[in-house]
Amino acid sequence: MFRFKNFKIYNEAKDFAKFCEEVISKNLKNDRKELLFQTRGAYLSVILNIAEGSGCDSDKEFRRFLEISLRSVYEVVAAFDLAFEMGLVDGKIQETIESKAEMLCKQISSFRKKLNS
Asked: pTM value?
Protein backbone atom coordinates (compact mmCIF):
# COMPACT_ATOMS: atom_id res chain seq x y z
CA MET A 1 0.00 0.00 0.00
CA PHE A 2 2.75 2.48 0.89
CA ARG A 3 5.05 1.79 -2.03
CA PHE A 4 7.35 4.70 -1.17
CA LYS A 5 8.73 2.65 1.73
CA ASN A 6 10.34 0.36 -0.84
CA PHE A 7 12.04 3.16 -2.77
CA LYS A 8 15.77 3.52 -2.25
CA ILE A 9 15.44 7.31 -2.58
CA TYR A 10 12.94 7.40 0.29
CA ASN A 11 15.29 5.50 2.58
CA GLU A 12 18.27 7.61 1.49
CA ALA A 13 16.22 10.75 2.15
CA LYS A 14 15.42 9.48 5.65
CA ASP A 15 19.12 8.89 6.33
CA PHE A 16 19.91 12.39 5.02
CA ALA A 17 17.24 13.88 7.29
CA LYS A 18 18.56 12.02 10.32
CA PHE A 19 22.06 13.30 9.67
CA CYS A 20 20.78 16.86 9.20
CA GLU A 21 18.82 16.63 12.44
CA GLU A 22 21.91 15.46 14.33
CA VAL A 23 23.85 18.44 13.01
CA ILE A 24 21.03 20.86 13.81
CA SER A 25 20.58 19.50 17.32
CA LYS A 26 24.25 20.01 18.08
CA ASN A 27 24.85 23.31 16.29
CA LEU A 28 21.71 25.39 15.77
CA LYS A 29 20.25 26.49 19.05
CA ASN A 30 17.11 28.45 19.82
CA ASP A 31 18.81 31.76 19.08
CA ARG A 32 18.67 30.79 15.39
CA LYS A 33 15.05 29.63 15.28
CA GLU A 34 14.29 30.89 11.78
CA LEU A 35 17.22 29.04 10.23
CA LEU A 36 16.49 25.97 12.34
CA PHE A 37 12.82 25.82 11.30
CA GLN A 38 13.55 26.53 7.64
CA THR A 39 16.23 23.84 7.48
CA ARG A 40 14.01 21.27 9.15
CA GLY A 41 11.17 22.14 6.82
CA ALA A 42 13.44 21.68 3.82
CA TYR A 43 14.75 18.23 4.74
CA LEU A 44 11.27 17.10 5.76
CA SER A 45 10.01 18.29 2.38
CA VAL A 46 12.51 16.01 0.65
CA ILE A 47 11.04 12.92 2.32
CA LEU A 48 7.40 13.95 2.40
CA ASN A 49 7.25 14.87 -1.29
CA ILE A 50 8.64 11.46 -2.23
CA ALA A 51 5.97 9.81 -0.11
CA GLU A 52 3.13 12.06 -1.25
CA GLY A 53 4.11 11.83 -4.89
CA SER A 54 4.14 8.04 -4.80
CA GLY A 55 0.37 8.18 -4.35
CA CYS A 56 -0.18 10.10 -7.58
CA ASP A 57 -2.30 8.66 -10.35
CA SER A 58 0.31 9.29 -13.04
CA ASP A 59 4.07 9.19 -13.41
CA LYS A 60 3.95 12.73 -14.77
CA GLU A 61 2.41 13.98 -11.53
CA PHE A 62 4.83 11.91 -9.45
CA ARG A 63 7.77 13.46 -11.33
CA ARG A 64 6.49 16.90 -10.27
CA PHE A 65 6.66 15.88 -6.60
CA LEU A 66 10.15 14.49 -7.13
CA GLU A 67 11.17 17.84 -8.63
CA ILE A 68 9.93 19.58 -5.48
CA SER A 69 11.87 17.07 -3.41
CA LEU A 70 14.99 17.77 -5.44
CA ARG A 71 14.61 21.51 -4.96
CA SER A 72 14.27 20.96 -1.23
CA VAL A 73 17.66 19.23 -1.19
CA TYR A 74 19.08 22.42 -2.72
CA GLU A 75 17.40 24.41 0.03
CA VAL A 76 19.03 22.24 2.70
CA VAL A 77 22.45 22.80 1.14
CA ALA A 78 21.85 26.56 1.04
CA ALA A 79 20.74 26.58 4.68
CA PHE A 80 23.87 24.77 5.81
CA ASP A 81 26.01 27.01 3.62
CA LEU A 82 24.53 29.99 5.42
CA ALA A 83 25.06 28.28 8.79
CA PHE A 84 28.71 27.80 7.83
CA GLU A 85 29.07 31.47 6.86
CA MET A 86 27.52 32.44 10.20
CA GLY A 87 30.03 30.27 12.06
CA LEU A 88 27.39 27.82 13.27
CA VAL A 89 28.84 24.72 11.60
CA ASP A 90 32.36 23.92 10.57
CA GLY A 91 33.62 23.29 7.05
CA LYS A 92 33.80 19.53 7.51
CA ILE A 93 30.10 19.35 8.33
CA GLN A 94 29.24 21.56 5.37
CA GLU A 95 31.29 19.35 3.05
CA THR A 96 29.59 16.22 4.38
CA ILE A 97 26.14 17.75 3.90
CA GLU A 98 27.01 18.74 0.33
CA SER A 99 28.40 15.30 -0.44
CA LYS A 100 25.33 13.52 0.90
CA ALA A 101 23.05 16.03 -0.85
CA GLU A 102 24.81 15.54 -4.18
CA MET A 103 24.39 11.78 -3.95
CA LEU A 104 20.72 12.15 -3.03
CA CYS A 105 20.12 14.58 -5.91
CA LYS A 106 21.63 12.11 -8.36
CA GLN A 107 19.42 9.33 -7.01
CA ILE A 108 16.25 11.42 -7.18
CA SER A 109 17.11 12.59 -10.71
CA SER A 110 17.80 9.04 -11.84
CA PHE A 111 14.52 7.85 -10.35
CA ARG A 112 12.67 10.68 -12.15
CA LYS A 113 14.24 9.67 -15.47
CA LYS A 114 13.09 6.08 -14.98
CA LEU A 115 9.55 7.37 -14.61
CA ASN A 116 9.93 9.13 -17.97
CA SER A 117 10.57 5.88 -19.80
From this structure: 0.93
